[in-house]
Batch of 2 targets.
Target 1
Amino acid sequence: MHTDSPPPTRVLYLAGWGRSGSTLAEGMLDQVPGLVGVGEIKFLWERGLLQNRRCSCGTPLRSCGFWVEVLHEAFGRVPDDDELRELDEASRRFRTRHLPGMLLRPTHPPDAGELGWYYAALARLYRAVAKVGGADVVVDSSKFPSYLTALLQAPGLDVRVAHIVRDPRAVAYSWQRHKEDPDAPNGELMPRMHPACTALYWSAWNLATERITRRAGLPYLRFRYEDLVTEPDATLLAVTRLSGVPAAPVRVGDRGELFVRRTHQVSGNPVRFRSGAVPLRLDDEWTLSMAPRHRRLTGAVTAPLRHRYGYRDS
Ligand SMILES: [Zn+2]
């Protein structure tokens, strides 16, 4: 039957808890013809446009040609500050960081009557990203399980979930490290978290992601950061298949380096600013440097889910 409605916009949603390698994964997926990786879209309004932080191409977002074109395509212009604040406030309703909330109320978004304008704006935005990016699929590494429920309300989006997980002890170690954030407005370091806290979040966040995806019946694939780094071809092939575009081999250099083109990612780990030859190495410093008591604590708190994801006690 013929209809005038445009074909759905495909979105590959990179889910997973922070410091699990999603920015690296997105940079790699962006190399695949048909996919465009644009970072953590939920932060477009606040960090991207209101704070005018840098796009991964190095330009402040309001001056980035890619995003200016996307906004004109979606809305006819760059929304004004009042409109951006309204969009940001709406998106904040899908940023549950509160652990009980994440597990108990993850699947009940505000209804369309109240936030219909916001869901319609999201639909226009993702459609415009695909068009301007010349891609069939938009890769969004927003990661929040709660934000997935907003995308499910947006009309005309075909959402598929690629869930990246990483050994929680490596994740907890990463959250302890002092790391510079070249994107922070006042030269602040990246946020840090105690391993006990990381362990709880790692478990709740990953479980909430599985639960929302399952209840919504979304196409889903879980993959491990460690496999992405050690077997990039096979891992990316599986994720690419989920997104529905033809598979393409990843170009890896003689020294195991990856060739990353300049991207236009909003927010995310500072590795997003790297382009050209980027070494592809497993970051397993935690196995040598993590305090034994933190290692034991993280291992114990995360044990059931960690075992299911194939991470042993060693
Ligand atoms: Zn840019």
Note: Residues 89 and 109 are 14 Å apart (CA to CA).
Target 2
Amino acid sequence: MSETIIRKCALKPCFLYRNKLHVLLLVLVLFHISVGNATERDIVVDPENPRSFTTTTPPTSVDVGAATNHTDAAKKITRSLRLPNTTFPLHYHLHITTRIHREIFEFTGNMTIDIDIRETTNEIVLHAKNITVTAVTMLELHTNEKLLDLTYTYEKHGSYLIIHPIENYAAFEEGQRYRLEILYKGLLREDSFGIYWMTYSDDKNATVYVTATQFEPTSARLAFPCYDEPSFKANFTISLTHSNKYTAISNMMVRQTEPSIDANAALDGNSVDATMVTTTFHTTPPMSTYLVAFVISNFVYISEEYRGVQQRIFTSPRLADRGRKALKNAVRTVAMLEDFLGVDYPLAKLDHVALKNNFGAAMENWGLITYKEDNLAKPDDADMHKNLKDVITQNHEIAHQWFGNLVSPQWWTYAWLNEGFATYFGYLVTDLLYPEYKIMDFFLIDSAERAYSYNYMTVRPMTYYVENETAILSTFDIISYHRAACVIKMFHHAFNQKTFVHGISQYLRK
Ligand SMILES: [Zn+2]
């Protein structure tokens, strides 16, 4: 036995111990700042220009429509901008009706939320913004009894819709469960927040409407009353009533499409509106509100199925053939990430939709990624540099299906946890799939150089507490995207491949 061999043997226990310690440390750190598993979150900012997020003006605050006897409680007290933990949503059934094909820009909503009371309280606090509530009813789920003495208040300061008894007492007891139904209406928006609309001209120069959503980080409340914080994960069953000339897609596959029942027409004995259909989707796994999404359009799609996951590229008809490269890349990337992470993509499908207007380059809604049109649907002779950037963007969004969607941060303090991992894995998986392009060299120029150049940013810690909507949006910056990606890359190299993958895999599985 040589001395060299003896020395190697002597070092081995320490080496193994250190590796196990690294895994333990990595997993503990990540678990501490993330929400269990089973949901997602995040916007897709332009990875090329994340600083643009910090200058984006969020939607202005407008009161939820309230009856004259409902006062603005913000005048009396200043609540925390964080939701109380006394109640928790279990299941949302969201039904939205839009008639934009008739150039009606108002939508109506029916939101039913099953709520678990975790601590006896006198109120249920939800987010709601720029919507007009028309009716609120509540049932105790066990007895099916309707609560008769309830009213609601809107608190503008936190965009809170507060359900409470008319006489103040602890009406909601720990352990009880309720079904809260809220009828409301709102306006489809022209900016890319909440539920918004856009148009394009078809081959006959006719105007075609497209309705889409952008909820990250705090715009789900523009579309429906909800617990609009990432840690309040719940199942969603979504129904959309829309023109029968259009189709609807959402996070999950369609469960059924049926003729629309028009409540007003029913009064005349004709309850079916022949021009409208209702599309209902399968119920989602538990997920954060900011990852809910849908698109209503007359788009066409190409598709491919691999390992039981159907992927589709949706475009307007005139761009029908321009998504083939993106489809091929998406199929390869999902398979590569499944193999690398040891965790299967959790849904049955993943759609990619090219929109004329989209906030940022793309948005990683779970199962339904939205893109700015020219980032997804391109001619075959498109510039190679642009193509590569678009591949990295798409792979960033696909990586989010695990980092952010499956496992989410408890609060936006840890926005870097989603963006840093998605940015790093966007590059990493692209490098693994297309080694000939030496993408990690591009990472050094595109990410690392900017991440450590103080010309590009206001310096702050990666983990950084924020509270109001403007501050939350501002965390989607170079620090969360690029500096965090550099730190994660450092972990990867310091821990070595086996330890890093083991730690990440455990993080995603817990
Ligand atoms: Zn991202």
Note: Residues 20-42+392-509 form a domain with the Neutral Protease; domain 2 fold (CATH 1.10.390.10).
